[in-house]
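Q: I'm building a small set of examples for a reading group on sequence design. Run inverse folding on the following structure and report the sequence directly after it, with nothing in between.
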C-alpha cells in the first residue's frame, strides 16, 4: 500500500513534469530533470546495497521515499513562481528553481536506488521460500494499480485545482507514504545476518 500511494503520486507528477514545467515557462526542464533522475538512479545502484545494509530495510524505505517527496515538492516551487511572477523572492527566481529541480531530481535518483534495493530485500526477508512468489506477486499488483489510481486522481485534480495546489497535495501524499514505511513490521535477523 505504501508503494501504491507513493507511486500514484510520483508517476502522475513525473508524467506531467515536462508539460507542466514547459507551460510554466521552464522550457525543457522537465525532460532534463528526468534525465538527471534516471542517470543518478543508475549510478546510485552501485552503492545502494551497502547503504541498505547499514540503515536497515524499513529506514531505507522511508529515506528513499523521502527523496521522491523532495522531487515532487520542487514542482510546487515552480508552480508558486508562476502564480507570483512579479515576486523578487530569491526562492522564486527561475535560476534557483531550475537548480532546485535538478538537485531534487539527482536526490530522487539516489533515493530510488535505496528504495528499490530495500524493497527487494524486505520482501525477500519477510517471505519464506514457499510463499516468496506470492509476496512479490501481491507487491506488483499493488504497485501497478498506481497507474490507474494516479492517472484518475491526477486528471480529476488538475481539472479542479491550480498547479501549485496540485503539487502541494502530491507532496503531502508522498510524505504520508514515507511515514507509512516506518510502520512496516520489522524484519527479524536470520542466520546470514
Amino acid at each position: 500500500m505504501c508503494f501504491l500511494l507513493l507511486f500514484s503520486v510520483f508517476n502522475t507528477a513525473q508524467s506531467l513534469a515536462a508539460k507542466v514545467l514547459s507551460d510554466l515557462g521552464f522550457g525543457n526542464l522537465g525532460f532534463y530533470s528526468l534525465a538527471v533522475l534516471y542517470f543518478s538512479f543508475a549510478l546510485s545502484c552501485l552503492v545502494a546495497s551497502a547503504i541498505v545494509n547499514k540503515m536497515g530495510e524499513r529506514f531505507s524505505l522511508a529515506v528513499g521515499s523521502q527523496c521522491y517527496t523532495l522531487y515532487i515538492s520542487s514542482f510546487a516551487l515552480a508552480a508558486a513562481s508562476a502564480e507570483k511572477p512579479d515576486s523578487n523572492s530569491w526562492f522564486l527566481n527561475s535560476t534557483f528553481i531550475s537548480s532546485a529541480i535538478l538537485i531534487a531530481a539527482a536526490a530522487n535518483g539516489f533515493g530510488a536506488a535505496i528504495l528499490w534495493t530495500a524493497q527487494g530485500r524486505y520482501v525477500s526477508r519477510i517471505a519464506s521460500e514457499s510463499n516468496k512468489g506470492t509476496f512479490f506477486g501481491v507487491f506488483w499488483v499493488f504497485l501497478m494499480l498506481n497507474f490507474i489510481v494516479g492517472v484518475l486522481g491526477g486528471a480529476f485534480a488538475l481539472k479542479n485545482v491550480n498547479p501549485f495546489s496540485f503539487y502541494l497535495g502530491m507532496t503531502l501524499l508522498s510524505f504520508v507514504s514515507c511515514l507509512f514505511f516506518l510502520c512496516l513490521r520489522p524484519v527479524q535477523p536470520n542466520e546470514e545476518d
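Residues 94-126 form the longest helix (33 residues).
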